[in-house]
Amino acid sequence: MKDTYHHKGLRKKLIDSLRKKGIQDERVLAAMDVLPRHFFLDKAFEEIAYQDKAFPIGNDQTISQPFTLAFQTELLNVKKREKALEIGTGSGYQAAILATLGARVFTIERQEALYNEAKFVLKELGFQGIRYYFRDGYKGLPELAPFDKILVTAGAITVPDALLKQLKIGGVLVIPVGRKVQRMLRITKVSEEDYQKEDFGSFRFVPFLKGVENVE
After folding, report:
1. Does domain 51-203 have CATH number 3.40.1370.10?
2. Which of 134, 133, 185 is nearest to 164 (CA)?
3. Which residues of the chain have a pLDDT value below 70?
4. Could you identify which of 87, 107, 118, 185 might form a hypothetical disulfide with 95, taking C-beta atoms 3.0 to 4.6 angstroms apart as the criterion?
């Protein structure tokens, strides 16, 4: 895998466009600037990898539009050494961004083919500390809870209780909720029973599905 001056130039333009669209967290932008997005896509998308668009990654899944990824990551506000649980590994790009920001990343993928591919790519890129799980994201990782931050990268019909329970007090869950169009929610756990919910507008995601899908 090569990251050329051409790729770096395209990435710079993308970062500038994200800044103009309202992304303010320079740590997030810096992480996206150093991490080659085209490494997480099929070679056919290499020349267009730095457009602000979602692209297919197989198994009816997509790599999120860069603005959406940056927006969610900014809302999450992950700090170094925080335990961050990602639901929906997909290509592995979001997990890599969280790891680049210094989080201890735990990521769950329900599609076995995507799980295997992302694990391979991330290890090839030197991300040794990310922990991967092939399982149902609706259930989270109760045995490793609580988490400082939880990020869901697919559209849920409702907020799963299991994920709320796996937050630390003061912890944050960022999740898109809705059927055809989702509302981006940031939920902060105030106490064992109380949560503060903030709404950050409409987005479109692939659906958050239950269960797992094995390679046939």
Report:
1. no
2. 185
3. 216
4. 107
